[in-house]
């Protein structure tokens, strides 16, 4: 089973099809270990609180919290700083490994082979490369503000 497939569960939760509020288009991108959604289609999104401590396992970026370890899809505009390793939030804040973040979004609940994430091939490939490191994928709402804590 691949991590990319787990996203289908998240994207199909309410409507038995892709959830356009989370999808953000197929223009997701990969910058180092940072995976992002495409640009936001609107202000809507999911109501869950996505939060955790930023962790790096090999080439895979994770959020760790009491719910476990989660691969993460950041909002469009988030990037990677190589030295020292850190996530650069779309507002310019820098969150080094071990720092905490919070924002609106949701979590996937399952994994199944062969399904695309809805964020494009580069994101799907990166999710697949991180298979086995986390039970769920945390997804910040496209266009949402992620805050450093």
Extended strand count? 11
Q: What order do the helices and strands follow? A: HHEEEEEEEEEHEE
- In percent terms, what proportion of residues is strand? 35-45%
User: Mind summarizing the main beta sheet?
Assistant: 5 strands, mixed, barrel
Global mean pLDDT: 78
Secondary-structure-derived class: alpha+beta
Estimate percent helicity: 10-25%
Q: Using the CA coordinates, give the radius of gyration.
A: 13 Å
Distance between the termini: 33 Å
Helix count equals 3
- The order of strands across the largest sheet is 3-4-5-10-9
Task: Please write out the topology.
Blueprint (H helix, E strand, L loop, with lengths): L2 H9 L8 H4 L5 E3 L2 E3 L11 E10 L2 E6 L2 E7 L4 E3 L4 E3 L5 E3 L3 E8 L13 H9 L6 E5 L6 E2 L1
Parallel strand pairs: 2-5, 5-10
Antiparallel strand pairs: 1-2, 3-4, 3-9, 4-5, 6-7, 7-8, 9-10, 9-11
Protein name: Lipoprotein
Structure, briefly:
Residues 22-41 are annotated as: Disordered. This protein is an alpha+beta fold. Helix content is 15%, strand content 36%.
Describe it.
With 149 residues, the chain is of the alpha+beta class. The chain has one domain (3-144). It has helices at 3-11, 20-23, 121-129; strands spanning 29-31, 34-36, 48-57, 60-65, 68-74, 79-81, 86-88, 94-96, 100-107, 136-140, 147-148. A 5-stranded mixed barrel has the order 3-4-5-10-9. It has a 3-stranded antiparallel sheet with strand order 6-7-8, with no helix packed on it. β3 (48-57) and β4 form a beta hairpin. The longest helix has 9 residues, at 3-11. The protein is globular, with a radius of gyration of 13 Å. It starts with a helix and ends with a strand. This is Lipoprotein. Residues 22-41 are annotated as: Disordered.
């Amino acid at each position: 089973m691949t991590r990319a497939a787990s996203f289908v569960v998240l994207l199909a939760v309410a409507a038995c099809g892709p959830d356009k509020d989370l999808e953000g288009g197929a223009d997701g991108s990969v910058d180092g270990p940072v995976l992002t959604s495409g640009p936001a289609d609107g202000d809507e999104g999911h109501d869950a609180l996505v939060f955790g401590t930023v962790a790096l396992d090999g080439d895979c970026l994770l959020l760790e919290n009491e719910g476990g370890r989660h691969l993460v899809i950041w909002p469009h505009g988030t990037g990677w700083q190589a030295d020292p390793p850190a996530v650069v939030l779309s507002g310019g804040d820098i969150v080094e490994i071990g720092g905490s973040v919070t924002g609106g979004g949701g979590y996937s609940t399952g994994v199944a082979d062969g399904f695309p994430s809805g964020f494009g091939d580069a994101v799907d490939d990166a999710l697949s490369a991180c298979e086995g490191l986390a039970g769920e994928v945390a997804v910040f709402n496209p266009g949402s503000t992620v805050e450093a804590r």
